[in-house]
């Protein structure tokens, strides 16, 4: 096994271990009782979509799940007051999901908890280690965008 394969295997093992150590699932639940990690993943995507909202199909694509999965999740989030479901004015067949004020409050609280958690971790690092880690994560983000773009082209999905 080559060095890159060993490093990939190590990262693959570390990421879920870090999530367990930080008790991310419990943190998500602490923001709002019954909030799932899948719902928590959808919230910042919908926040970033702005007041126009996002089509159900686009959210499914962004999350990497099926439209029925997002539809079921959206049903529960509408029931709990986090989302509003509206029809597109341009095409009434398109269902848009928008954050409600409650949903926006939940995502802001969640983001605040994650920022505080990151600060706790970063305080333990030297300034140089923090800089290297941030630079590396920026690169990983850029490369992940390229992978997503390539997979989208291969799948024939518009973004």
Please provide a written account of the structure.
- It is a single chain.
- With 159 residues, this protein is mostly helical.
- It has a domain at 37-124: Arc Repressor Mutant, subunit A (Orthogonal Bundle).
- It is 70% helix and 8% strand.
- The protein has a three-stranded antiparallel sheet.
- Strand 2 and strand 3 form a beta hairpin.
- Helix 3 crosses helix 6.
The first-to-last residue Cα distance is: 36 Å
CATH superfamily of the domain at 37-124: Winged helix-like DNA-binding domain superfamily/Winged helix DNA-binding domain
CATH topology description of the domain at 37-124: Arc Repressor Mutant, subunit A
Rounded radius of gyration (Å): 18 Å
What's the shape? Answer: globular
Let me know the largest β-sheet.
3 strands, antiparallel
Number of helices: 7
The mean pLDDT is: 91
The strand count comes to 3
For the biggest β-sheet, the strand order reads 1-3-2
State the helical fraction: over 70%
**Can you write the helix and strand succession as a string?**
HHHEHHEEHH
- Low-pLDDT parts are none
CATH architecture assignment of the domain at 37-124: Orthogonal Bundle
In the CATH scheme, the class of the domain at 37-124 would be Mainly Alpha
Binned strand content: 5-15%
Structural class: mainly alpha
């Amino acid at each position: 096994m080559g060095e890159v394969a060993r490093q990939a295997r190590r990262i693959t093992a570390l990421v879920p271990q870090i999530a367990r150590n930080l008790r991310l699932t419990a943190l998500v639940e602490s923001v709002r009782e019954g909030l799932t990690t899948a719902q928590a993943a959808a919230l910042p995507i919908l926040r970033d979509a702005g007041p126009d909202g996002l089509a159900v199909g686009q959210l499914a694509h962004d999350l990497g799940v099926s439209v029925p999965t997002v539809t079921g999740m959206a049903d529960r989030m509408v029931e709990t007051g986090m989302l509003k479901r509206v029809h597109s004015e341009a095409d009434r067949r398109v269902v848009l999901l928008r954050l409600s004020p409650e949903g926006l409050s939940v995502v802001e609280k969640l983001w605040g908890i994650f920022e505080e958690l990151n600060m706790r971790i970063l305080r333990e690092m030297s300034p140089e280690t923090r800089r290297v880690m941030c630079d590396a994560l920026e690169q990983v983000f850029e490369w992940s965008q390229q992978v997503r773009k390539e997979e989208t082209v291969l799948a024939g999905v518009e973004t």
